[in-house]
Every structure is written in C-alpha cells, then in structure tokens.
Write a structure and sequence with these properties.
- The structure is a homodimer of 141-residue chains.
- Chain A has 141 residues and is mainly α.
- Chain A has one domain: Winged helix-like DNA-binding domain superfamily/Winged helix DNA-binding domain (Arc Repressor Mutant, subunit A, Orthogonal Bundle), CATH 1.10.10.
- Chain A has 6 helices and 3 strands; from the N terminus they run ααβααββαα.
- In chain A, strands 1-3-2 form a 3-stranded antiparallel beta sheet.
- In chain A, helix 1 packs across helix 5, helix 2 crosses helix 4 and helix 2 packs across helix 5.
- Chain A starts with 7 loop residues before the first helix and ends with a helix.
- The relative contact order of chain A is 0.13.
- Chains A and B meet through helix 1, helix 2, helix 5 and helix 6 of A and helix 1, helix 2, helix 5 and helix 6 of B.
- Chain A binds a DNA duplex (30 and 30 nucleotides) through helix 4.
Chain lengths: 141, 141
Amino acid sequence: MPALADDIGFLLSRASGLVVRATNDSLAEVGLRVRPYSVLVLACDEEGGISQRDLAATLGLDPSQVVALVDELARRGLVERTPSPADRRTKLVAATARGRELRDRATELAGSGGQQRLGRLTPAEQATLRDLLTRVVDDPA
Amino acid sequence: MPALADDIGFLLSRASGLVVRATNDSLAEVGLRVRPYSVLVLACDEEGGISQRDLAATLGLDPSQVVALVDELARRGLVERTPSPADRRTKLVAATARGRELRDRATELAGSGGQQRLGRLTPAEQATLRDLLTRVVDDPA
DNA sequence: CGCTAACGTAGACATTGTCAATCATTGAGG
DNA sequence: CCTCAATGATTGACAATGTCTACGTTAGCG
C-alpha cells in the first residue's frame, strides 16, 4: 500500500503550495501575487502584446479568469488592452512602462521567494527538476 | 530575463494543477476528490486513527479546513471521530471498514489518473522526481 | 488554584477552479 | 454576397481552496 508521502501527485501539490505561498509573501511588497505577476511577465515578454486566449492557454487558466486578472492589472496601469489590428475579436495585452519597471523588481522578489524552498536543491538538481517538470507539463504534441 | 516557462515555481504549479485535475477526474467514479481522498488514506494508515492536528500538518492545511473534510467523510461513513483516551481535546480520525474498502479502489483510480501525465517519465525519472520533491517539501529540520 | 497553551470548531472573506450563456467578429461554404 | 459554425472576450454562477480571527474545552505547569 503506497504511502501518501511517496505519491508524486501529493508531493507536487505540497511543493507547489509551499513555493507559491513563499513567492506570494515575497511579492506582497509590490502588491502582486503569483497569478497577476505571471500575467504581467507574459505581457512584458511579448513585444506587441499577447492575446487573452494565449494567456489563458499558457497559464492553464479558464479564459474567464484572465478577464479579471487583466482588469486589475490594467486598473493599476501596469498593462493595456489594445484591439488586435488583425482580428478585432482579439485583444492584445501589453505591459506599460510602469508595468515593465515593476516586473523587474517583482522578478527579483519572486526569485528569492521561490529559492527559500528550492534553494535546498543544488543548481544541477534544480535543472533536473526543471527538465522533468517541463516534460510533465508540455503539450501532448 | 527569465522566461516564465523556465521558472520552477511556475512549472510546479502547472504540473500540480494538471495532475490534480486528472486525479480528481479519475476519483470522481468513487465520489471523491484529491483532498478528501488524502484524508481517507491517512486515516487508514494510522491504525488507531490520526488527530486532526496531525492531518492538518501532514497535508499542509489549516486545521479549520480539516473539520469540513472529516465531517463529510464521516457523514458518508468512511471515517469515525473518536476522542483520544490520552487527551480529551484531541479527536482521532480512523477509517471504517467501508472506508478501507473504498480506499483500495480509490488508490487504484488515483494511481492511473496521476500516471496520465507522470507516465511520460520513466520509472527511474519518477523516482528522481519523487526524491527531489521530497527534499523541497520536507521540514526544515 | 490560576495561567497559558493546544485542539477542534465556527465564521468570515479572498482567491481559485469550472461551467454555461452571451455578444461581436471571423472564416468558410454555398 | 450571405448564411453559419467557430472563435475571442466577457459575464454570472457556484464549488473548492487558502487564510485569519475568535471561541469553548481541556492539558500542563507553576
């Protein structure tokens, strides 16, 4: 009979919870949580902006969740919604200058927060973990 | 600038979400979700029953969350709450015969559900992942 | 005995997960 | 051209989860 403490699903859930909590605590300084922070990062990375549909797909969220996240970031002036020139249904979410500034600071904070737990692993081990998780997450393609 | 897709915290969160969802789907057949299933497993594993405090600590939950989980499992006759003989504040949660039966079936289902994603890794890789996650999760001790 | 701490519980509240329904727009086929 | 099915964004509803505060009961200690 398998012990719960050896179940990879359980361990994933626990580890995720711990790291996310620590990261949320670190990000509190800039008034962000992991979720909105992730949206901001993606909005920064795509020069012309990223569609909400792509945001949802990348983050594994329901499109309806993205609406509120972008609303809040837009309200704070960190991102802007602009209609796509190619498809008027699509709205491109792009970071503002203020958004990019905050992202830099937030990325530092998030990094140190995450390392509170992940720092127990050597860089090589972290690389291994990253590779394994990437394969678990990647599209069935 | 680190890409979100390479952030271990993000990958953990995504992987956890995917595996938990798949497991929930598998467990639906027996009317359980991951959370109550975990409580049931722990109640089965400890012969004399496990205190709600220990349940909370092991699962990383707030004690107040455990109350509702145990309430529901007890309502379905899968576990029983008995006052600890040693400490009348403590209530020991133990699985009933029906609870143990269901646990066996549920463990099969949960296992196959989790492997939908984790099956992409070889058994050796899964062992590596388990070890790494265990170290991330373990007490600071 | 009198205090402080621990356990379980209740309640409040924000965040997250999941769905169904709607509106505007697009792209494809007749 | 003109339907029409499909797509992107949005809303609303509701369950599940995370987080905190407060309270009653009981232990353990000085």
